[in-house]
Amino acid sequence: MGAVFGAVSINGQNYQQIGLRPEIKLWKLGIGLDVHVLLDDEGKVREEDWNDWQDYVDKVYFIRFGQKGDLFYFRYGGLEWSTLGYGTLIYGYTNMLEYPTYKRQGLELGINAEHWGGEFIINDMKELARDKRGFMGGGRLFIKPFSRFQIGASIAGDLNEYNGLRDSDDDGYPDEIDRYPENDQYATDIDYYRGKGISDTAINELIAAGLLSPIEKTDLQNIRDIRSKTGFWSVDAGLLLLDFQYLKFDIYTQFARNFQTDGWGYSAPGVRMSVGSFLELYADYRQQSDKFIFNYYNDTYDLQRAKYVDDGTGNLVIVTKKEQLQSALEAKGYMAGVKLNFWNIITGRAEYQDMKWGDINDKSIRGELALNKNIIPFITKAKAYYVQNNVEKFEWKTESTVMSAVLGIGLSEGVSVDIKYLITFEDKNGDGKIRGDEETITNVSVSTSALF
Predict the structure, then answer these.
(1) Cis amide leading into 100 (omega within 30)
(2) Is-contact 267 286, C-beta < 8 A?
(3) CATH number of the domain where residue 104 is located
(4) SS3 call for 302
(5) Whole-number Cα distances in Å, 392 to 363, 365, 377, 388
(6) DSSP-assigned beta bridge partners for residue 310
(7) Each residue of 320-373: pLDDT tens digit?
């Protein structure tokens, strides 16, 4: 049983949290719960966390059976690093970027039999309960003609990118343009005043005096009326050349195509080598046509899926990641990465992709370093993470950049003060640059955790 006490900020408002995080383990089954009560400045419970059935589903942090690679593997809830096959389509996806501000209930399962198997990933089961259903996910089936050779086929897609816009009251008007995001009866101030019985004459006088916004609900775009789909298919093959107790080496190749644009990409050759649990090296050469992006559904996908930007005239317009796909150019290059594990004391990962055609670049970088044991007095945990995807030029701050860090300070046996930082960026004015505090989104929480 873990307990959490302290402060947390959600949507710019501060709360005191009291929570229990019990984890139940039985054989290969693990169940983790995240039961929080948030109290505002007046000591009142945040009602939005308890007023419908989905809020109770959110109390499930995860349900897990087995480990990936077992005969049968299953995980429901928080997905921290989900990859389909060799990662051409879905690579390192996580639905935890905005946790606990926004909780997604994902699904990942796998079957790994002697001569065949399969994998399946869904980003958020709650999207299937919306009025306009949709989800991001994919599946892969593979066969093993013999023990060391594997052939697979995958399909992945997003049935509605606009589900990436947060709509708390599910009225079709995302929170960013909805003046009353917790009430599906109102979307503008005019709606509110009319709902309170104020006459149109009085409303027009308030507008004329500059005391009320003239925006009507009909001026806003309802995302129920629009849909944006993306989808890919791929095939792959892999051969395990060396399979010793402490050394494994395999080669692979993969080819993928987008349904909407007919853009394609392939990797060949791809190589991967692991030395026990200490070291893993991997790399591949890759080439793509116009209108294709490798690892399209990646670890920053939820931040790029759909967002509002200023069109330069003060109006907010929706931009989806499909627009980035439409503008992608023919390129070729490589991806290389390394994973390290120093006796479970320090673990790390670093990865770099460089795609180029002429003067055009498409680069991605990610790195992670974690301290897993008390080798430094009073430090119970320490982890740092940085990722930046699909940029022409590396800059410290971009819309695809995620920076996070966790530091735990031990107060006594079993008690730790945890400081968590998560920093993302949003180009709200659409000028291609990240400037000022308004375009930097920082989520900081300080909590006390106890293990019983």
Answers:
(1) yes
(2) yes
(3) 2.40.160
(4) helix
(5) 6, 12, 42, 11
(6) 316
(7) 999 989 988 899 999 999 999 988 788 999 999 999 887 778 889 999 999 876
